[in-house]
Each structure stands twice: as C-alpha cells, then as structure tokens.
Amino acid sequence: MSLNELLKEYMQKTPKSASHYEKAKAFLPAGVSGSAKFSKPYPIYMKSASGCKFSDLDGNNYIDMMMGNGVCILGHANEKTREAVKNALDSPAFSFLAHERELMLAEKICTSVPSMEMVRFANSGSEAVHMSIRAALAYTKRKKIAKFEGHFNGSFDLLLTSTAKIDGTPENPIPALHWAGVPQSNLENVLILPFNDIENSVALIKKHADDIAAVILEPVTGFMLASVPCDIEFLKAIRKITSENEIILIYDEIVTGFRLAMGGAAEYFQVKPDMQAMGKALSGGYPIACFGGAKELMEKVVTPTREPSDLTEKIFQSGTFTAHPISCAASLAVLQELEKGEVIPYINSLGDYMRTNIEEIAKKANCPVQVTGCGSMFNVYFSDHAIKNKRDAMKADAKKRTEFSMRLLLNGIYLPDGKPALLSYAHTKKDLDYVLSVIEQTLNMIET
Description:
This protein is α/β, with parallel strands linked by helices and 448 residues long. It is built from 16 helices and 14 strands.
C-alpha cells in the first residue's frame, strides 16, 4: 500500500477531524494554535484522554506514545494531579501576589536537583531557556551564545538557528537561519557547534572563548533532532572546556528534566551544569517551566533589589501568570509522585524494553533501522548508519519514517512523523507489546 493509499485510509477514518479542520482554519492558521500541532493533510483533533490513550472526534482510540510532548509523565488525567488542582481551585485561583505553593514547589525542585540551588518560574519552556541565556549574558558580560547544530532550544529569536536547517561543514558548522521573521543580525552572536564531536567543538569553543557567555545543549535531543543522547565523554569534554574558560554551561532540560532522573541529566550522566531549564514533565499538564542554577549566579543577576543598579546589573524576568497557583499545585502533585522512586525507574525500563525489541524486530525483518534514545525516550530512524547528530539524521530515509508513522496511526498508535516517543507511568507492557506487534507488521511491509 502506497503512502497516498495510506492517506486515503486516514481520511476515511477521520471525517470529523477533517470537518473540524475546515472550520478551524477559518479562525486559526492551519486550524491549530501552534505550528508543531499541524500535520498533513490535516491534524487529528482529540476529544478525550485518560491514562496512555486518547480518542479523537471520530471515536478512534489511540495509544499515545508522545504524551503531550512528554508533559503527561504520570498519564493523561492523572487522578493525583486532578485532585491537587481541584483543591487549589477551592482557594482564590489567582492573584499577582507571591503564595505558599510557589515556595513549596521551589524548595522541592532545589532539593531534588542539587545543581539548581535557586530557581525562577516561567510560563513555557522557551521562556525558561531564554531567561537562562539572558542570565548568562548578564553574568559574564560577554556577547555570544554557543549552541549545537540540530538542537531545538525554544522559539525565541536568538536560538532559532541551525535547528531544522544546516550550513557550513560538519567540522565547522555556521549559523543557518530558517523560518521567516528571525533577524539576520542574530547570526552575529550565535556560534554553532558540531554535536557529539569532541575535537571540533572544543576547538571552536577555545577559539571564541573570550566572547562566549554560555554553551547550551540538550543532554538528549527532543524535537528537531529526535532523541539523540550526548555521548558521555563528549559531555565531560564540554563541561571541562567551559569550566576552564568561565563559560556558563546550560542544560536545556525542557524535555529531559524530571524524566531521566529526579536530578535531571546532571544526575543521569553525572556531569553538572551551571544552569538548567526544566518544563514538560514537571508541569502535570499545566503551563509552567523553570530555570535556575548556582546561588551565586542567581543572586548576582536575577535577584532584584529595587535599587537603580538593577537596571544595569540585573535581568528583568517576570510575568502575570508566572508560578500560577494552579500550575504550582499540579507540579507539586507530580513531584510528590516522582520522589516516591517508582515512576522514573519504571518508565526508563519501558524505554529499554522498546529499544531492545525494536532493534530485534528490525534485524529479523532485514530493515535498516537505528533506534536512538535513553531512559524513557526513543526514536526510530530508517538508516544503516548510526545517528549521532543532525547531519546523520538528515541522511536517514524520511519517506519511510513518514510511512512508518502513518501505518502506526492507522493501527491506533500515535507517534507522529519525526517525533520521539516519550513514555509514561500509564503505559503497560501489554500496551507496548501491542505497539511492538504493529511495528513488526509495519517493518515487514515497508520496502527495504
């Protein structure tokens, strides 16, 4: 069955989503409230969700392998989170003032993440990452940011380079602009580094060290380069060179925070950053993220004094809905479950189970597949070579990956094209054995 035939079957199964799309696109660009939510020929519109499953407007049921981009680590509509939110709604839902849950959550985060001695809250992962960068620029009084080719560090201008597009050579990548509206002038202050390449990354950092305020990386990549971990020796080398040159090392853990380990990637890889930004799994499905790091850094450039010196020595970071009581209540409920010590080892074991079995299935099917990831994250690339960076990923067979995702979708498994799987506590071996059976069937049907 060709991809066009698969799309026809999709359209036959989802007429209500198609109808809703026709209405929605009159008011919402592409019928969605965010570019990442759109897919051709039209997106699925969800009606309800519970555990690791959701239903669409047509009544089709799906095993969700992304769980709200990794947000729902306990599962959709988790009872503990719902109860916490209901209790929070019994008190005044919102005022601009500081509140008790704000402190409770901050204390729990700092206790759980030793490398984060102080924390500030934000409303999205992009905002938290952006504020980490702002703090690093203020602290070092330098002008450049170094990021890795293929890493997605949010939707703010400075970092929206070299994520979906590449330029330069593998050894010496140069900033590549993509998407309209991002100023060309941004390229002057961004250094692009080759991911998982110790020799050339270290050399570039040394060359530009006097200008670099921060190096930012995803310890395990998320959405523009799906689920590729840092090699441990590479991570150690980046930590060493940044420390030697007084450059702030920032972990973008919007995806991996409270997923790989309670202490995030610093605990999982045993390599400590200077700052971290976390979100998604922390949130329990409500809008919240955070950034933080060493107390000395946070006090110097984040803590306001209401003195005139704030205008030159402190960053400005605030927001009307920052640390909203409802979001804090949900996050506290999530962390209380995670700190019991059952959730993260369980979902990490599921990730191991999936990677091992998919590799075995692909080998039996004589299908060249690379299964990347670690912990509860994984992705499938159709390639006969290892995937270590963006350029490796771009050589993989994108058409086969599209067909793979569509065949899964038609069999009730939601794992969108090019996106990583992010497993939850609600997934069971029975759920995943069904997923594996469909993957086996699919890999035997895709032409090699």
